[in-house]
Amino acid sequence: MSITGNLRQRLGPRKRAVQTMLSNKVPQFIGAANFFHLNGAFREEQAAVAAGKKKHLEGELDHSNRMFLRRSVHRIEKGLISQPRRDTFAADYIGRTVETAVSFQEILKQDDPGELKWASDVLNRYFEATQNSTDRRIGAARERWLSVGVKDSDNGVGDISGNACELAPFEQPQLSDAADRYQSLTAIAYHRRSVRWFEDKPVERELVEEAAAVGLTAPSACNRQSFRLLVVDDEDLRKRVAEVPMGTAGFSHQIPAMAVLIGQHRGYEHERDRHAIYVDGGLFTTGFILALEGLGLNTCCINWPELKSKNERIRDLIDLDSDERVIMMIAIGYGVPNQLVPRSHKRSVSAVVQWA
Ligand SMILES: Cc1cc2nc3c(=O)[nH]c(=O)nc-3n(C[C@H](O)[C@H](O)[C@H](O)COP(=O)(O)O)c2cc1C
Is the domain defined by 178-333 classed in CATH 3.40.109.10? Predict the structure, then answer.
């Protein structure tokens, strides 16, 4: 146990004020760096980042890292659209990208045929675009790709709108009816509010998945989307999961579905990217909750307190890998009609937006 943790235990429950004072004042006396080592509050996060880094690097070497594949295919796409386009690019990772695509093809055929088609279409384009390159690494990767390649990736998978097409860089058309579409978006955005009281009515899984598809259109760091969403709608488990975070006190028992957004550090090889799971998860959530609102459902995002005790409790209820962190939870259900919701007035644009 950490020194401040020990101290707290010895003080006993009646000395909460002293405890709070200690955790607030100790950093001032001993300095931020010493506090970091003594306090231990960041230790679990650090361990998860390290576990993710290990998973990433091991997976990259034995070609079992899907996130490496996603990132590499994305980087290759950026090379394909660069102006002017070079004859040689991506040479330092093209060999590993091809091997990873090949080794994943059977899994992806079952699991995510779109991902396989995207990788395959982009690699085909890449080898066309680098035909004049004299780089031996590209030559070797091309040979390997042409001889082994990915078979039957063109299995009728379309783009995110369901249109059958090549999943490679494309000319984006102008948005038709942009003004109308903007109005629909703002109507949902201005209408949505966090709702905490729900009808005793199950949430259709198809609707949650439909909304997740909208959430997944969000931008993400190198298009990795290194997270998963566990939606708990089991009668018993959902109540136990909903009780764990602090912010559900008083309403946890009647949440029909509790979504747990889980970040996976394995998507990142550098600790400098340790915040990406939270950023990407947050962006996903925005689209997700707006889409749920549009589908007639209500939501309330729930804070995940970064505490050892909470992490231990949630790990007792759901399986979490060593690099996985809960980002937040999202309560989902049909709101009780005519309930009061907090106004939660937003800050004004002028108070937030600055120009320089
Ligand atoms: C990351 C995050 C954590 C939140 N945590 C909680 C929570 O623990 N309990 C709760 O009742 N509401 C929680 N909320 C809801 C906020 O209170 C709410 O979004 C905010 O007041 C704005 O209101 P609105 O969502 O109705 O616009 C959370 C929201 C976010 C985005």
Answer: yes
Radius of gyration over every alpha carbon of the chain, rounded to an integer in angstroms: 24
Please tell me if the CB atom of residue 195 comes closer than 6 angstroms to any atom of ligand 1: no
**Which amino acid residue places its CA nearest to atom 9 of ligand 1?**
247
Ligand 1 centroid, distance to 309 Cα (angstroms) = 22
Domain coordinates of the chain in residue numbers? 3-41, 47-147, 178-333
Quick check: CB of 328 below 6 Å from ligand 1?
Answer: yes
Q: Whose CA is nearest to atom 13 of ligand 1?
A: 302
Please provide the size of the chain in residues: 356
- Residue closest via CA to ligand 1's atom 29 equals 301
Predicted TM-score (pTM) above 0.85: yes
d(CA 246, CA 208): 24
The predicted-structure confidence for 294-347, as pLDDT tens digits, reads as follows 999 999 999 999 999 999 999 999 999 999 999 999 999 999 999 999 999 999
- Integer Cα distance of 216 and 208 in angstroms: 12
Tokens read off for 287: 């689209």
| CB of residue 302 inside a 6 A radius of ligand 1 | yes
Distance CA 350, CA 130 (A): 49
CA neighbor of 56 nearest in space, from 94, 90, 96: 96
State the closest ligand 1 atom to the C-alpha of 342, by its place in the atom list counted from 1.
26
Three-point CA angle 294, 349, 276, nearest 5°: 65
65-86 pLDDT, tens digit per residue, is: 889 999 999 999 999 999 999 9
